[in-house]
From TrEMBL:
Any one GO cellular component localisation term in the record: cytosol
Protein's UniProt keywords contain Transmembrane: no
GO molecular function, one term: glutamate-cysteine ligase activity
Name assigned to this protein: Glutamate--cysteine ligase
Catalytic activity annotation: L-cysteine + L-glutamate + ATP = gamma-L-glutamyl-L-cysteine + ADP + phosphate + H(+)
SUPFAM superfamilies attached to this UniProt entry: Glutamine synthetase/guanido kinase
E.C. no: 6.3.2.2
NCBIfam families xrefs: glu_cys_ligase
Amino acid sequence: MSNQLSRRLALLDDDERRSVLGEGLRGIERETLRVDPRGNLAATMHPVALGSALTNPQITTDYAEALLEFITPAENDIGTTLNQLDAIHRFAYQHMGDEMLWSESMPCELPAEEDIEIAYYGTSNIGTLKNVYRRGLALRYGKAMQCIAGIHYNYSLAEKFWQLLSANEGIPEERRRPLRDFQSEGYIATIRNFRRYSWLLMYLFGASPALSKSFLRGRRHDLETLSGDTLYLPYATSLRMSDLGYQNAAQSGLTPHENSLESYVTTLMDAVNRPYAPYQELGTKKDGEWIQLSTNVLQIENEYYSTIRPKRVIRTGERPVQALCRRGVQYIEVRCLDVDPFEPVGISVETGRFLDTFLLFCALDDSPLIDAIESQVHARNFADTVKEGRKPGLMLTRGGEEVTLQDWARELMDRIRPVAALLDEQHNEAGVHAASLAVQEAKVANPALTPSARVLEQVRALGSSAAFGLRQSELHAAYFRESPLMPAEEAMFAEMAAVSLAEQARIEQADTGNFDDFVAAYNSSTLCGE
């Protein structure tokens, strides 16, 4: 255990100080495709009863019109968060007819590219901007890749937590950094540790070892054939997070930026403003119609595909990096989690308990700066785990030496254990974090217990990745339909949907100026008047 981890654990180990751990927040964004009863991508528009995809705070769409995104409010406990997520699912199922929500991260059998409908957000300038951004994603990455679904885990620690750490770092008060800066640097340090150890999450929670052959659209690959319509890798944990998923030549050149918030912001702003020749050849318009927002490496900051992001809630007209520059980091967004096809809402409370423990460990432990070579090592450990994580004797690189994944995982679990104990002392339910840790340790000892191994076993038994996805989708649909929302809950979601539709209409009616000027203002960051 590092000296810093020991010191911070001791600092938090009394009732009053430990209570600040219960004041942090977590929220979930779950993406899921709408499919028809045969497991094909739904060809229908976003159900109007779910409200406006532009303005509903809890139900929207991601890339495709059929790719729903459910967003929970921020809560102090993951159990409450998952109850919220469950309710959103039940409301959606009451207004989807015979359609279902796809149970896996990798898509169902997809139609031709031209038949995948890009998400529509109405006629306002901001709604059109969101649609054109997605047109650009189609050009740059293809529509199939944009139909991949995931779980995003938003996590924050209370401001009091950062105040407590700042006051006990042994630095005289007159020499301490402003709390905003200390907190931002604390989150960036957390992200560095996440980079070091996130391979462990892919081993424990990766659930996409196989995919539909149609997903690749003829691309070259190194996958093996499991059946006529299914490709896989025998020891893969998450093909979604491999080079078959979110990858792009333009983004591959982005340099490491985990060492400071300034470096992160500078890197993204450079990518948003730096032209990329292949995109310049395409232009921003074709036959007078917008096809992408810009010809730069990134159209907007959110195009950067990262396993984790520093975040700040944005204000109207504000870009994400502007919010970070002005007010610092408020929370982190973990983006590498596969949808768990064995869980109706895509993630279990047990997984959430471990994530809370893991992320707090990353925040408390010593986190040295990462140079370019070390960054490559972390990326290679992650890449090897997503493609071969269950391979017996798989070696990862730690401190310039080779170590087996299992040995390193066991050592990490031992280091994380006191953090689980600390959280359990704070929590009302005794032992839940330690119990989750024990479940993860069993997966380390026996790879057959991992979600990826369980998925692959079921895919083999059914002979098809699509058949497995359809079966799980049917099971989950029955689970939600058998127990609809109480009338008061239904009314609450219906009211939220109605308000969102009215808000979209208000935005559209209030719009002034043409779209070309709107994009120019957005790209030059002048929408917020600064």
